């Protein structure tokens, strides 16, 4: 591996992102990429249950309601949970690029405290692509899509193949995923052959 840079600024030669021709239409609800995902999984009892929709261009929007289980300080969301929401929202851009990618680096700004019961409205977009490196940015606003900005993140995601999960994930879950037709269908949606 080459030495990672500390910068999240796309290098010279980076290109604007391209919306995949088969990307879900703007406004379309994106399903979970994995039912047990802590960010978006429907069957993950402890998860954030983010509801994400495709946006225009290479963008998505998401809504996350802060629950009592997400507290750090009394009555306030934990910063790590908010980082997860930003990470997951940027990760969901995979659906619009039709490229599987994982977080390499995530830099978060916490602007306002976020109380329990807040509906956090997130939006994310890809800013540039350079080889396997995908540069993204996200914002979380309180109460409404045009509400006050509470959190922001910039991230570098790295494109991977489905083998990344098969080689690194625990056997039990990988075997179950490969035997689940719905999960295989999701993997195919990213144009990979598990
Ligand atoms: C069985 C069926 C299953 C099917 C499932 C299908 C559906 C799945 C769909 C969608 C899944 C999306 C899930 C989203 C969930 C939300 C997002 C997360 O939380 S993801 C989890 C947290 N992240 C990790 O666990 C990554 C851990 N890290 C790694 O595995 C490696 O480090 C990896 C893959 C990121 C890179 O390793 P390398 O060996 O492939 O590549 P190298 O050469 O090291 O890096 C490539 C380029 O990127 C730069 N780079 C890498 N890491 C960097 C860093 N931290 N900072 C800056 N640059 C970095 C390098 O300098 C290099 O740059 P130069 O091409 O040389 O210019």
Features:
7-stranded antiparallel β-sheet; Acyl-coenzyme A thioesterase THEM4; 194 residues; cell membrane; transit peptide; HotDog_dom_sf; 5 helices; cell projection; alpha+beta
> How many DSSP H or I helices?
5
| Helicity range | 10-25%
Poorly predicted runs: none
Distance between the termini: 25 Å
Strand content: 25-35%
- The CATH superfamily of the domain at 29-160 turns out to be Hotdog Thioesterase
User: Structural class, from secondary structure content?
Assistant: alpha+beta
The average pLDDT is: 94
Q: What spatial form do the alpha-carbon principal axes imply?
A: globular
Radius of gyration over C-alpha positions, nearest whole angstrom: 16 Å
CATH architectural category of the domain at 29-160: Roll
């Amino acid at each position: 591996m080459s030495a990672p840079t500390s910068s999240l600024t796309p290098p010279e030669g980076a290109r604007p992102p391209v919306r995949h021709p088969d990307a879900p239409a703007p406004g379309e609800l994106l399903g979970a990429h994995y039912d047990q995902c802590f960010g978006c999984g429907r069957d993950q009892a402890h998860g954030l249950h983010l509801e994400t929709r495709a946006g225009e261009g290479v963008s998505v929007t998401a809504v996350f309601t802060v629950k009592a289980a997400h507290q750090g300080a009394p009555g306030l969301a934990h910063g790590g949970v908010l980082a997860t929401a930003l990470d997951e929202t940027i990760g969901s851009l995979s659906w619009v690029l039709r490229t599987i990618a994982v977080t390499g680096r995530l830099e978060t700004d916490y602007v306002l405290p976020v109380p329990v019961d807040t509906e956090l409205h997130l939006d994310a977009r890809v800013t540039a692509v350079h080889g396997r490196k995908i540069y993204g940015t996200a914002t979380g606003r309180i109460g409404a899509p045009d509400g006050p900005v509470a959190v922001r993140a910039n991230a570098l995601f790295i494109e991977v193949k489905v083998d990344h999960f098969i080689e690194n994930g625990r056997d039990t879950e990988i075997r179950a995923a490969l035997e689940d037709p719905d999960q295989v269908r999701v993997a195919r949606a990213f144009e990979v052959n598990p």
